[in-house]
Amino acid sequence: MYMKNILKTTIFTLFTLLLVSCTNDKEPIPSLNGFEYRDVSEVPSPAVLLDDNAAEVYKKLEWDRANYGVPVSANYRIVITDHDNDPTFLNEIEIDGVYSDNESDISKLRKATLSVAGFNDALNKLPTFNCGVMKIDIRIKSILGTSSNQQIQYAAPKTVTVTGYPTTPKVLSFSNVSGTTILANLASTGFKSDIDYEGYLYLEPGDYKFYQPDACGSFASPIVYGADAGGVLVAGGGANININTAGHYYITANLKSGELKYTTQFYKTFGVLGTAVKLPTAAVVPMDGNNSNIWTITIDLFKGRLLRFRSNDWTGELAGNEPKNIPPSTSKLVTTLGLVGSSLTNVQGNDGGIKLAGNNDGTKQKYKITLDVSKPRAYTYKLELVE
Question: Are 23 and 93 in contact (CB under 8 A)?
């Protein structure tokens, strides 16, 4: 009996020790403990960012390994926010580049070099960006785990005072001289370009001029351009540009020094063309429009074929609700819009075809097509199947 009790006691003790051991032998849980970063730039960062200096270094940063309480590897991003308008960091913008604790990739081992261009691009993505003086908070963001189970911590922010430059396309206004509001209704291809402003406008009869905003896009004190003979623009002078007929116009301008010029081209409507609609004698099928420069049509189109849009000044009336195939001899081409990459833009020849869904087997599907050219150089289209 005595030996039995000793055996039972021994077994119970071992079971208890194993239970305690298993209970305490848990995986360590990461906890957020913070980390710091440092500005290690050799020279002071420029207070004013310029496109002319885009490739230069804005700032060099280094930071500690994020401390999660256990030995783990994290990824890092550099983020910025507007110090004055976003004190709780709700609208952070990540600067391109992922950094890590990976010792094998020394180039991205918790250090970064920010260029003027890269920092300025991030500034432009802030919802409160302006090209005046801004206070910007810079932080390092540490990310541990996957998107579904992340632990994130931040280094304390450092605040810089900086003036960025816009990277949106330059804008211009073609407005009635008697109007009280000047709107940006023309745009160039980019913030570096002054030679290719364009826009599709509905204009009432009257006298017009071009108005150029300041570098920040403000029309408070614009440069005003009138015109001389031959489509030549004159800064601060020149005559009014008279629009005699109410309707749709395609307007262009070149403000490069020594090349100042403009065009105003009337068009009656947009139409659709291409192998998706083309019959042996057909060219373009006119769309229905309105004064907001939004054009629509419901039409049968060949599956798997190509479509584009064309603005024309057609001879004669475009009466009736049914689409008409109008031969080229009765229309004057103004522009052709096609797809280049993901952008709808002016194209030449047969470029820019928009391919319809389906196999090119000679059968058709009915579509409602909407073309919106109301925003300069931000043209859009929509294809909707009609059952």
Answer: no
